[in-house]
Amino acid sequence: MLSWRINRTLDALIGRIERTTALDPVADKAAALLLKPLDASTPLRNALSGTAAGHPLHPVLVVVPIGSWLGASYLDLTGGPAARAAATKLVGLGLAAAVPTALSGANDWAYVRGAERRVGFVHAAGNYVAIGLYAGSWFARRRQHAALGAALAGGGAALLGVTGWLGGHLSYARGVGVDTTAFDGASADWVDVLREEELVEDQPTLVRDGRVPVLLVRTGGKLYAIADRCTHRGAPLHEGEFADGCIVCPWHYSKFRVSDGQLLAGPATRSQQAYEVRTRYGSIQLRHVDEPGSLRTDPVR
Ligand code: FES
Q1: Which atom, in ligand 1's list, is nearest to the CA of 111?
Q2: Substitution candidate for ligand 1 out of 38, 116, 233 with most atoms within 8 A of CB
Q3: What is the rounded distance in angstroms from the CA atom of residue 46 to the CA atom of residue 265?
Q4: What whole-number distance in Å separates Cα of residue 271 and Cα of residue 257?
Q5: For residue 184, is it within any domain?
Q6: Neighbours of 60 (CB within 10 A)
Q7: Count of C-beta atoms within a 10 Å radius of residue 21
Q8: Which pTM value belongs to this model?
Q9: Could you list the residue range(s) of the whole structural domain that residue 160 is in?
Q10: If both were cysteines, with which of 8, 53, 137, 259 could 153 make a disulfide (CB 3.0 to 4.6 Å apart)?
Q11: What is the helix, strand, coil percentage profile of the chain, to 5?
């Protein structure tokens, strides 16, 4: 009963943040500023997104500052005077690690809109306040004000609990950072999608495997098909720029090879699902034999 009430209260609270459009002018301006250098530099987008790692970088990096800072508080509570120097070092380590962590988070946030952008804005603002508290804690400790340093760190830890919960909501409830095709089923049987004569060479065309949108293209006389929904934030890839056997996402410029869906440039971190294609009696058919996975099973199709 109690857990149900807590759950409902938290849902109401997050719903309020998601609907607070008053945040939009500032949040949209900040996102536009961030997108300028990101749009201009593929290496920067790749690095901050975690493209090489195959998963978003931010959730990995947060472990270092949070772990360091909570370790410092643990020493404050249990270590006594002998552990003060170690606690100060841990707070400093957390502050240093907070820089790349915040940059990767800002990168992820720049690519969301609406409710996700508002929640992310509050998440980031809270984290910046927490970083300020830990910076104050570090200076206090360096000036031998151990009690003040511990109190500021305690305040930072409490705030991190709130912002961490908001970050969890973004990932687990709103799906930010999740491959947008993760729940797409695909037909293991051959499906007719288009007549051969309807497909124009080098023109990416939207077809459907059941309800799943698929990008179909013929280039150099060969047929290729990959999932049309960009794994990053779900853009329709068939509207992107096609050249040299690659499609560039129309929203944030991730680049994918159409022959196998391979991701070549971020901010996406996941490749596109590729389909097998063949022609039978003038009809183009496709199928995708997937790894068995319960979340890719669509009972309705
Ligand atoms: S939706 Fe962001 S790169 Fe495609």
Answers
A1: 2
A2: 233
A3: 7
A4: 9
A5: no
A6: 13
A7: 11
A8: 0.89
A9: 2-173
A10: 137
A11: 55, 15, 30
